[in-house]
From TrEMBL:
One of its GO terms (cellular component) is mitochondrial inner membrane. Residues 344-359 have a biased composition (Basic and acidic residues). Belongs to the mitochondrial carrier (TC 2.A.29) family. This is Phosphate carrier protein, mitochondrial.
Length: 359
């Protein structure tokens, strides 16, 4: 399946948000190349790989591993307190109290509980999230003509990110279940090596995917917002805020804009996905609970517990993830397509229509 997706991606005639800016001998070259079975993209001088090639997608996956694995592991203490606040609000009350109680009971080292499943799980998730997003984005846009792909680019972002996250969560779910057990069940286990065999012995392998559906409910809307909001925010920042065109910005300035767009996207991500995040934490803590019983017990207000720290955590996480991902692309000399621009044919057509109306 994926080999055919790669073929479609490499032969994509799409121009706009998905292809790097480069000089071509003729504006008709790309469609003609696609129709004749030739790759539409080519290695640009200075780049390490061809856009939409298997190597390009593999390096995108590597960028996803680094961006997600590093950032999620770095905020494990805050994530631990957030999970404990969700599953036992009477004891931990708020973020500050949660830190105090956790340190008093387990010491400073206790704040690092769950770092191993976090690092492994979110590295695997990042591989699929970013790598497959690039694959699906180019594939879906390649199914459309140039103007349609530009007009409906936000739907392309949403569909591509949802498709990628579907697979990413299958990779994440077992490690997420182990992480929550380690962090929220005192005495159960302190390491992944201890928690994993206990969970298999007591409940079987099915327990690792018990929270998969609510995980999809949390992560798919989160990722759709993360990618679509980031792509649109990046467009708007370069159009209305950054005082010069992107091609005139240094690599460092471009990374600063990437970080800003990522943080804005992260705030919306946290809000959209928080109720499902609370349900996932509760499900992984209590093996007898169901989604309906948890929602009925917590109520509408209860599923929003811990939103404050999650906004801080996810906003910072998302910004850093996009920054690291883009920095990896710079470091590896990968093609970095500019924000979407209106196709020339569409611009001329709209200008002609506007001129006709004014007569």
């Amino acid at each position: 399946m994926f080999s055919s997706l790669l073929d479609v991606a490499r032969n994509s005639p799409f121009r706009g948000p998905l292809t790097p800016a480069r000089c071509e001998p003729s504006s008709l070259a790309a469609p003609q190349a696609a129709q004749s079975g030739m790759a539409a993209a080519a290695v640009v001088q200075g780049d390490s790989c061809e856009f939409a090639s298997p190597k390009y997608f593999a390096l995108c996956g590597l960028g996803g591993i680094l961006s997600c694995g590093i950032t999620h592991t770095a905020v494990v203490p805050l994530d631990l307190v957030k999970c404990r606040l969700q599953v036992d609000p009477d004891k931990y009350k708020n973020v500050l109290t949660g830190f105090k109680v956790s340190v008093r009971e387990e010491g400073m080292r206790g704040l690092a509980k769950g770092w191993a499943p976090t690092f492994i799980g979110y590295s695997l998730q990042g591989l699929c999230k970013f790598g497959l997003y690039e694959v699906f984005k180019v594939t879906y846009s390649g199914m459309l003509d140039e103007e349609t792909a530009y007009t409906y680019r936000t739907f392309v972002y949403l569909a591509a990110s949802a498709s990628a996250e579907f697979f990413a969560d299958i990779a994440l779910s077992p490690l997420e279940a182990a992480k929550v057990r380690i962090q929220t069940m005192p005495g159960f286990a302190t390491t992944l090596r201890e928690a994993w065999p206990k969970m298999v012995q007591n409940e079987g392998y099915g327990t690792f995917y018990k929270g998969l559906v609510p995980l999809w409910g949390r992560q798919i809307p989160y990722t759709m917002m993360k990618f679509a909001c980031f792509e649109k925010t990046l467009e708007l920042l370069y159009k209305y805020v950054v005082p010069k065109p992107r091609e005139q910005c240094s690599k460092g300035e471009q990374l600063v804009v990437t970080f800003a767009a990522g943080y804005i996207a992260g705030v919306f991500c946290a809000i959209v996905s928080h109720p499902a995040d609370t349900v996932v934490s509760k499900l992984n803590q209590d093996k007898t609970a169901t989604v309906g019983s948890i929602v009925g017990k917590l109520g509408w207000a209860g599923v929003w517990k811990g939103l404050g720290p999650r906004i801080i955590m996810i906003g910072t996480l998302t910004a850093l993830q996009w920054f690291i991902y883009d920095a990896v692309k710079v470091w590896l000399r990968m093609p970095r397509p500019p924000p979407a621009e209106m196709p020339e044919s569409m611009r001329k057509r709209l200008e002609a229509e506007e001129a006709a109306k004014s007569k």
